[in-house]
Amino acid sequence: MKKLIASSLFLLALPLVAWADRPAGHPHHAPPPEAFAACERRAAGDACTVTFGDHTITGTCAAPPDAQQLACRPDHPPAR
Asked: At 11, which helix (H) or strand (E)?
């Protein structure tokens, strides 16, 4: 069960990681809806948290490329 939860968390957090740590010149993936929801009614640079199941990721609100809405960018993206 723990492996299932861990792999589910990894798959849900993958778009966040891709956005937070993408090399220049590579296409990006849009953050998940939860990341945008975490920054509703917040300003750029504000602290935020995103919850996926039983796990919470802390971050900072920032505008991802090609988006006009802030999303929660993880402070510590998981290692690839």
From this structure: helix 2-20
Do residues 49 and 60 touch, judged by C-beta distance below 8 A? Answer: no
Indicate the pTM of the whole model. 0.61
Strand ranges for 1-80 from DSSP E = 47-52, 55-62, 71-74
Closest CA to 58 of 71, 49, 67: 49
Supply the DSSP symbol for 55. E
29 CB-near residues (< 8 Å, 6+ apart): 14, 15, 18, 19
Rounded Cα distance between 61 and 52, Å, is 17
pLDDT in tens, 20-70: 555 555 556 788 899 999 999 999 999 999 998 888 999 999 998 888 899
